[in-house]
Amino acid sequence: MIRKHLSSDGENRISELIALMAQPPSHDPEMIKKVTCDLVRVVASALMRLRENNPRFGESECSILGEASTVPMGRKEANAFLCACFLEIRSGNTDIWDNVEFFAEEVLDDPENFWQSILDHTEEGWNERFFDYNLHPDEKVHARIYHIANLIVRFYAGDGRQIWMGYEQDPESVYKRLLMLQIPRSIACLIVGILKDKGYIQGPFDIVGDIVDSRVLGRMICGDGSSITPMKARRLARMIAPVDPWVLDRPLYLIGSSWCGPGPKCRACPVRDVCVFSIFEERGIRPDPIFRDHLFGKKSVQKTLKKWQDPDMDHSLDRQY
């Protein structure tokens, strides 16, 4: 069994926190701060224990690059790795890496300049080979690879390693250089995280913060993951693991994809004993929103919205884009 029960002291503390979140005796800021801080510590302990005790929750996101290494990555290996990530390696399509390997070695004849070989097609010709190349089931993702190839050749001379070479101690800069390729932020985060796991770059970095991470963290700490934005999810991850939030990404992804989906399977979840959503669902109650407000602040109407609601206001300069 993956699930580990809390100690009696841990169970007692969770019961105390849940009771306070359901019916706080007062809205004293210090009490609210203490409850939320204690809850974050309990969740942090549970996630770290899960990662340490179960290898599946601590291993790298993908096995494409093999074991962690300090040996510089080859150009062909780097380009194939990036292509697989751009094809959404986390989408659940287990054939993506095999498809990329076959495409590079058999279709393109193992070229030194992988991205230029893609650009040897016309854009129309590339799109017409969607079914032949079978890289991804979504035509839009297939088409996106051509535009990425164009940018990698333009910015990085067709060598994906240039994205992180010289920036090995600066994950944030690697992330920004990836965004120059006009890829989704979640994919850029995932690439940086895998490179960290494999030892090619070092330093703290955020979780991906996608819909899965947001849902799991929102439920575990706030009792509701439906309105947690990627920014809020990353903020929660920094509270839980301030030294390096990335260590949470793999556990959150596995919890979210295995148990904490749109229809949660709380009874089987390995962290159900420390999850606010699971405990409150079991008791048929809801946490007081004052604790959520403490973490993120109360919702407020934006000033720009107020301007649009004022008929006497000149709106001619309000739109900047």
TrEMBL record:
One of its GO terms (biological process) is DNA repair. InterPro entries: DNA_glycosylase. GO terms for molecular function: catalytic activity. It comes from the Archaea. This is Iron-sulfur cluster loop.
